[in-house]
Write a structure and sequence with these properties.
Shape: globular
Strand order of the largest sheet: 5-8-2-1-11-13-14-12
Bound molecules: arginine
Distance between the termini: 22 Å
Helix content: 40-55%
Radius of gyration: 19 Å
Number of strands: 14
Strand content: 15-25%
Number of helices: 13
């Protein structure tokens, strides 16, 4: 059965009773059939030669603040033998600190203008937030590794305009794969390095996208605290967005503006670069299991067209 299959993939650190308990829990959110099908699909996405094909999970700074909830959700995946690649931001935490130090955050087109002082704060906050998540995971018995450099190479996006902000030019997935092969969840920040060794700030959503293009995972998950994307007029949660059929129409809707427009454009650009079987999910940390392991999900699923799995 699926539990044994997951076990054969070589996760020795998780006790069998643990795994049974978790699988039983999963059955309580969906039917045995659908849960097993999703477990099977997700488990077979990764192999020892390509261990990072299950999911990239982007965690916003606000979600990171709900540390226990987040750590539980990620541990759940780990317990069933799945290794998501986690990348987090730290926007709100940074703004708090800068506020205390009397620096006013400056954004142009949603990009944080970054001078030396801002970068200094960013490096410190990223490191601290990263360590908090890694520690919370380890406390639950989930092995995790901080990966705070060495993955992203970048050029200056526009030095005059944004300062020390990077445009990613290369993603090195080796530290990520090494972490998973060693049985630990890779926990990444979005800082990058330029060719001459300058650290550059990169927007975490953009970094998650570039990471996904390199890894080509089945799922790219954006955790937010609202649990999905919402219709701007009716306020209803959007269940599924099929980009092939709906993108152009959606972009013309008067309620689709600012953040929503930016996100849709990002998702489209991202999925255009990925196999058709890859999809994006926008969901809260607490409903992640339901989104992944049931047919109906719980948040918003964004895919290219109707056919989800090959
Ligand atoms: N569990 C499936 C997946 O992760 C389907 C999710 C459906 N989600 C939704 N919001 N309609 O791909």
């Amino acid at each position: 059965n699926i539990v044994r299959r997951v076990q054969v993939r070589g996760i020795q650190s998780v006790a069998q009773t643990d795994r049974d308990t978790i699988t039983r829990l999963l059955y309580s959110i969906g039917t045995k059939r659908e849960v097993e099908r999703h477990l099977r699909i997700f488990s077979s996405s990764s192999h020892p030669s390509e261990p990072a094909k299950f999911a990239v999970i982007k965690v916003g700074g606000a979600v990171l603040a709900e540390l226990d909830e987040l750590a539980l959700s990620l541990s759940f995946l780990y317990r069933v033998g799945l290794y998501p690649v986690v990348l987090h931001g730290a926007g709100p935490q940074m703004n708090d600190i800068m506020d205390r130090e009397g620096v006013v955050p400056d954004y142009i087109d949603g990009i944080r203008v970054t001078n030396a002082k801002t970068l200094q704060v960013a490096r410190r906050v990223f490191m601290e937030e990263n360590l908090k998540l890694v520690n919370a995971l380890e406390k639950l018995g989930t092995r995790a590794r901080p990966i705070t450099s060495g993955v992203f190479s970048a050029d200056y996006l526009d030095k005059e305009k944004y300062g020390l902000v990077g445009k990613i030019t290369k993603v090195d997935k080796r530290p990520i794969e090494a972490s998973i092969r060693a049985g630990a969840l890779p926990i990444l920040t979005s800082l990058a390095e330029s060719a001459d060794g300058q650290i550059l700030n990169v927007n975490a959503d953009i970094a998650a996208g570039e990471l996904a293009k390199e890894l080509e995972p089945m799922k790219i998950v954006f955790l937010n605290d609202k649990g999905g994307m919402f219709h701007g007029v009716t306020g209803e949660k959007l269940d599924v967005i099929n980009l092939d059929e709906e993108y152009d129409g959606l972009m013309k809707e008067p309620w689709v503006k600012y953040g929503t427009k930016l996100k849709l454009r990002e998702f489209k650009e991202l999925l255009d670069h990925l196999p058709r079987s890859s999809s994006v999910a926008v969901i809260s940390a607490s409903s992640l299991q339901k989104e992944l392991f049931t047919d109906s999900g719980a948040g918003t699923l964004i895919r290219r067209g109707y056919k989800l799995f090959k």
